[in-house]
From TrEMBL:
Protein name: Chromosomal replication initiator protein DnaA
Binding, ATP: G272, G274, K275, T276
Record field: compositional bias (Basic and acidic residues): 149-159
CDD domains noted in UniProt: AAA, Bac_DnaA_C
GO CC entries: cytoplasm; plasma membrane
Residue ranges of the region described as Domain I, interacts with DnaA modulators: 1-119
Signal peptide residue numbers: none
AAA+ ATPase domain span: 261-400
Domain Chromosomal replication initiator DnaA C-terminal: 476-545
Length: 575
């Protein structure tokens, strides 16, 4: 029960201290569970929610799913239920909060506000501190070390597990200071890594965004500061085909008359098929027709972070929750991407539910994008799914051959390249259902031609893509990380951990690039696998390696050799 004189930050500190005292005597909690409890930093209390900071995804999942924690919070709150709302912040920021907890109330609030402002731009290097409090995953049990690492484990945040081929005993507590590639990997020149520092600037994060639905690598684009729209993602740059023509037509109709039909509009389909492009195209077209419209594009991660920040510390006293409500409930067109990632986040979904109702009742247009149809969304209440189903749901499918050729041709046009038709045909025939792999194949061919100062021919394309086209076996991100780590004589944990040494940064960016290229995972998924990093960091790494392949032969060789290794490992029959 909150006191009348205490601040929200003081209430949060008091409640969490009482809850922790109770949890330390709870026999149902393991030492691992208690290490997660100790990892939490209380921030603020708002209505029936307590805002908490955690250093990694494992802590968040543990705290949210422990009935003992919910019971302790309720008891500490005078018997009233209290829902934990947990945000992942970098360990450095979490340490700052922990130190400031013993200071004055004013200092607590100041630190909480600083953490809120920096958390969204910083990488969420959650794996720096494991759930047992160690800074290295080498403390995992021997039985865990022997277990195979699955994609599901990685997605759930179990990044303290070693890779299948690297025993825990072989993993150092700290990254190596020096770096020597494996034989055959090409000479490694340290000074050439300056362009690959793993610390993208704010400008880089905002401006190196690929054009969704069209292969990236062309002109860099900027997100509009007010609307967050990608200005280059328009209906003109969206390549239509049988797989997406209906979705494009409906999207255009919505853009021409927002709120009058197909409201809400739900666009769903696999990763990399153009959903994000269509959302941005709707916003851009609507604004071109009526510049007075209030339009906002946001992905689920940004929506969640903004909501949590509006509840932290002095944010409440400054009226940021009211500002958050105005920002999202007074728009004419709201475009929300990757909504599936809101699943299970009860407090955020409750806020979105009220936002949805306010906009829908006012005949404002709502467009959402998801990887599955609304009825298949996990962790959503039926009342929200029924509202999604009250509008129109359209899907986008993998492009057919003609559309794949058209996408390649637009990619070439954006990059001012002359690509022979037989080369486009070759790539389109071999890559059938993944636009990113389609893009990656063309990037490799053009990079090889540029490095060797050769014309682009079918023979060059066949030689360059010999390993690229070899197998249809599904490639797992854990396989990619393991192979890249071995190639650069690093460990699995080096690549998913927080270290930013240049040799680790380059290897990590290559692993991110290849995961983006060779799997269907979204940017958010990849970021979670690589230590809980932000999706914009993944995109920065992707663009950095993509451009580096055409400029530095060693980067091209790394990616090309690793492709062969990864595909041979995934399909031993290749020899």
């Amino acid at each position: 029960m909150s006191s009348d004189t205490a601040t929200p930050a003081e209430d949060a500190q008091r409640i969490w201290t009482i809850a922790c005292s109770s949890l330390r005597h709870d026999d149902t909690l393991t030492p691992r569970d208690m290490s997660c409890v100790e990892d939490i930093t209380p921030v603020s209390v708002f209505d029936s929610m307590i805002v908490l900071n955690a250093s990694n995804e494992i802590t968040r999942l543990t705290i949210e799913n422990k009935e003992a924690v919910l019971r302790a919070l309720q008891a500490a709150n005078g018997g009233e239920p209290l829902v934990p709302l947990i945000k992942i912040v970098p360990p450095a920021s979490a340490s700052k909060n922990a130190r400031s907890a013993s200071r004055t109330t004013a200092k607590q609030n100041e630190t909480s506000a600083d953490t809120a402002r920096t958390a969204t731009a910083a990488e969420r290097a959650g794996s720096a501190k494991g759930p047992d409090g160690a800074t290295s995953a080498s403390s995992s049990s021997s039985s865990t070390a022997k277990a195979a690492v699955t994609d599901r484990d990685v997605r759930k945040g179990l990044r303290d597990l070693p890779s299948p081929d690297l025993p825990a005993s072989a993993k150092p507590a700290k990254p190596r200071a020096s770096f020597t590639p494996m034989p055959g990997s090409g000479r490694f020149v340290q000074e050439k890594l300056d362009d690959f520092a793993d610390v993208p600037t704010k400008d880089q994060l905002e401006r190196t965004i690929a054009v969704p639905g069209v292969p990236a690598g062309g002109a860099k684009v900027a997100r509009d500061e007010e609307t967050h729209l990608n200005r280059n993602a328009t209906f003109e740059t969206f390549v239509p085909g049988d797989s997406n023509r209906f979705a494009r037509a409906v999207s255009l109709a919505v853009a021409e008359a927002p709120g009058l039909s197909f409201n809400p509009l739900c666009i769903y389909g696999g990763s990399g098929l153009g959903k994000t492009h269509l959302l941005n195209a709707i916003g851009n077209y609507a604004l071109s027709e009526n510049p007075k419209l209030k339009v906002r594009y946001v992905n689920s991660e940004e929506f969640t972070n903004e909501f949590i920040e509006s509840l932290q510390g002095e944010a409440q006293t400054n009226g940021l929750i009211a500002e958050f409500n105005r920002r999202y409930r007074e728009v004419d067109v709201l475009l929300i991407d990757d909504i599936q990632f809101l699943g299970g986040k009860e407090a955020t979904l409750e806020q979105f539910f009220h936002t949805f109702n306010a906009l829908h009742d006012a005949n404002k247009q709502i467009v959402i994008a998801s990887d599955v149809a609304p009825k298949n969304l996990k962790g959503f209440e039926q009342r929200l799914i029924s509202r999604f189903d009250s509008g129109l749901s359209v899907d986008v499918k993998p492009p057919d051959r003609e559309t794949r050729i058209a996408i390649l041709r637009m990619k070439a046009q954006i990059s001012n390249l002359e690509i022979p038709n037989d080369v486009l045909d070759l790539i389109a025939e071999q890559v059938t259902d993944n636009i990113r792999e389609l893009e990656g194949a063309l990037t490799r061919v053009t990079a090889m031609a540029s490095l060797n100062n050769q014309p682009i021919t079918r023979l060059l394309a066949e030689q360059t893509l010999q390993d690229f086209f070899t197998t249809e076996v599904e490639i797992k991100p854990t396989d990619i990380i393991t192979q890249v780590a071995q190639y650069f004589q690093l460990t699995f944990d080096d690549l998913v951990g927080p270290w930013r040494a240049k040799n680790v940064a380059l290897a990590r960016q290559i692993a991110m690039y290849m995961t983006r290229e060779l799997t269907s995972l979204s940017l958010v998924d990849i970021g979670e696998i690589f230590g809980g990093r932000d999706h914009s960091t993944v995109m920065h790494a992707y663009k950095k390696i993509q451009s580096g392949m055409a400029q530095k032969r060693e980067v091209y060789n790394y990616v090309n050799e690793l492709t062969g290794r990864i595909k041979r490992h995934s399909n031993p029959g290749m020899g």
